[in-house]
Each structure stands twice: as C-alpha cells, then as structure tokens.
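Quick one, probably user error.
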C-alpha cells in the first residue's frame, strides 16, 4: 500500500509564525503516526529552517513571505522551506558550525547543523537577491503495511 499526501503553507515572516509552522507541519505529519522522538526531530529541523528565513531572509521587512511545502510519500516526509529574500552569498560558509551573519544578535550559527542532525537529507539552494530554498527529508522507521 502506498500513502501520499501533501500540503502548502504560506505566511509572512513574523517570529510568531515559527511556532504556527511547527505545529501545522507536526499535525500534518501525525497522520503517519511518527514516534514522539521522530516528531520532535521533524519539528526541530523545520523550526531552524523557518527561523533562518525569519531572521536572515528579509532583514526586518515583515512583509516577506515564507512558503512551506510538505509531502508525505509512504513514510518519507519532505519539507521545503522557501523564501524570496536576500539569499545566501556563500552556502558552504553558512553551513559551517558556529558561522553567523548576525553576531550582534547573539545567533549561535548552528541552524544548518541542527537541521542536518535531525533529518536524513538536507539540500540548500540560494541565489543572492532571489531567496533560499531548504529541502529536508526524513524517513520514519516503519514498515509499509
């Protein structure tokens, strides 16, 4: 039996919307009955990606849009977090642990590292001036019934 479902979420880049995104995706993913640990990992990775967009993409412009596309294909969850903000000049540098472009805000620089820790696959695509797209995939530890 194959299971497939998808959803799209769009919101402006206000910090209050990070928890909304986390809860909405967790609720959507709950239909495939993840363990509590798997759900926490998904929520944490998503939260880091959304927070990165809120903090870095639009540079205090609260009218920027963040899109989340979430797909469930059997027991694999794919989340795409996309913004149309300033983009990332050097993705390799941005992915380095402890690197932050906002040290004055006491950012830890661990966002990408945290995302990679909690998912099976992570891809980051970005163009300066056009935005960033982070794709996160996690396969739940289940047998398809």
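Nope, works fine. Designed sequence:
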């Amino acid at each position: 039996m194959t299971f497939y479902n998808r959803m799209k979420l769009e919101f402006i880049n206000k910090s209050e919307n990070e928890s909304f995104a986390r809860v909405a995706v967790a609720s959507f993913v709950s239909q495939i009955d993840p363990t509590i640990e798997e759900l926490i990992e998904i929520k944490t990775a998503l939260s880091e990606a959304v927070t990165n967009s809120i903090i870095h993409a639009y540079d205090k412009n609260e009218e920027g849009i963040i899109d989340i596309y979430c797909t469930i294909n059997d027991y694999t969850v794919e989340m795409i977090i996309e913004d149309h903000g300033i983009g990332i000049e050097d993705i390799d540098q941005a992915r380095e642990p402890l690197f932050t472009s906002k040290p004055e805000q006491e950012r830890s620089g661990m966002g990408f590292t945290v995302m990679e820790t909690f998912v099976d696959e992570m891809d980051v695509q970005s163009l300066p001036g056009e935005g960033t797209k982070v794709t996160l995939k996690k396969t739940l530890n289940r047998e398809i019934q």
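Strands lie at 4-12, 65-73, 76-83, 121-127, 131-139.
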